[in-house]
Amino acid sequence: MLEGGETPSVVFDMRNKVEQFREKLENVEHLSWLGLFKDISSTSLHPFWSRKSSHRKSEEHNKRLFDKFLKISNVQITEEVKLYLRKPTFDNWQWEDAEMVVLLQQMFIDLDFTSKFNIELPVLQNFLYEVYKNYNHIPFHNFRHCFCVSQMMYGLSWLVNLSETMGDLDVMIMLTSAICHDLDHPGYNNAYQVNARTELALRYNDISPLENHHCAVAFEILARKHCNIFGNVPPETFKKIREGMIRCILATDMQRHSEILNKFRAMLNEGFDFSNKDHKDVLMMILIKVSDISNEARPMDVSEPWLDCLLKEFFNQSDVEKLEGLPVAPFMDREKVSKPSSQVGFIRYVLLPLFESLGQLFPPLDEHIILPVKEALNYYTDMEGTIRVEQSKKAQPI
What is the pLDDT along the chain (398 residues), one digit of tens a residue? Predict the structure, then answer.
């Protein structure tokens, strides 16, 4: 109490806050984040968890990264790092975001794209920064994944000398497609988009909604003059770049996996022809697909953390699908899948057939990416067997 018996204003403020908090506790609406009270009508375009900015990086975060990127962008990268950047064994976990942006810049420089396509360095830096900003803060399909896919594509281009067999333009298309291939990924896959009737699914008529969106965001960035790394190429060349990027990014939809792989195998059987545009177009799709799902071709201490990230994203989605009464894929259900069970079938029936088909065209890849995938299959098969033995022991009566 103040002199004269008056109650300080701070006490009134405190009482009001306590009263507001009591009302909140008594009102069930505060439980909506648990999914207990929410609108799950089939006409809703935005699920209850959807927030435009929920997975966005803050402007402050982005500014700090850009400032750091610019400070270190002129630092001379050692020859040792340049050579390491070309290898499938590259460990992304050792590098911070700003450093990875610098390494993406270095890829364009080392492939001599800045000279051959007259890409101004400030424009390249603006482009890479905008790309970084448009990758969301989600467990798997984030900027680090973008970097890994791009680094594998870059590594493949050196391992089998793609610039010579396919030409610089196609290699630049594939590298840029890899950089852009998951832009603004929300962390929920195409099946969710279609089943939840999201805005993306409606916009693209249920046809590869995410991949179409990634592609659209890429060209929104490139439409800005200060970010258009293709601003100095002739219109006909830009047209080829746009067609190639659309084709490559849309090829990353796993629903099209069998279609694309079967087409490539048919071309191998009839005799692959690097002078045939149709053959090269399919090869470009195969190369970006290999790069996109290439984690298991890396050393286990690099690849296994990525599996944890992927399962986290899968489980996040399946939890939401259960709350919304939507179909749940068994391979995404935390109650039905384990780390080894998620990988054994995927490696045996998806990864290896894809990688081995590419290895038929480029035999040097056997040592660099096919053998490691086979070792990963053995690793997860052994892990799955061990888990089954332990489970059978627990099931036996004492």
Answer: 545 555 556 555 655 554 554 444 444 333 333 333 333 333 334 443 443 445 889 999 999 999 999 999 999 999 999 999 999 999 999 999 999 999 999 999 999 999 999 999 999 999 999 999 999 999 999 999 999 999 999 999 999 999 999 999 999 999 999 999 999 999 999 999 999 999 999 999 999 999 999 999 999 999 999 999 999 999 999 999 999 999 999 999 999 999 999 999 999 999 999 999 999 999 999 999 999 999 999 999 999 999 999 999 999 999 999 999 999 999 999 999 999 999 999 999 999 999 999 999 999 999 999 999 999 999 999 999 988 888 777 777 76
- Look up the pTM and report it: 0.86
User: Minimal CA–CA distance to 298: which of 77, 81, 79, 93?
Assistant: 93
Q: At what angle do helices 371-395 and 300-324 cross, to 10 degrees?
A: 60
Give the Å distances, CA to CA, from 1 to 9, 15, 110, 227, 398.
10, 15, 74, 63, 70
Token code pair at residue 33: 């984040």
- How far apart CA 303 and CA 91 sit, in angstroms, is 9
Question: Which residues, other chains included, contact 240 with Cβ-Cβ below 8 Å and sequence gap of 6+?
Answer: 169, 173
Task: Yes or no: say if 164 and 172 are a contact pair by the CB < 8 Å rule.
Answer: no
Active site residue ranges: 141
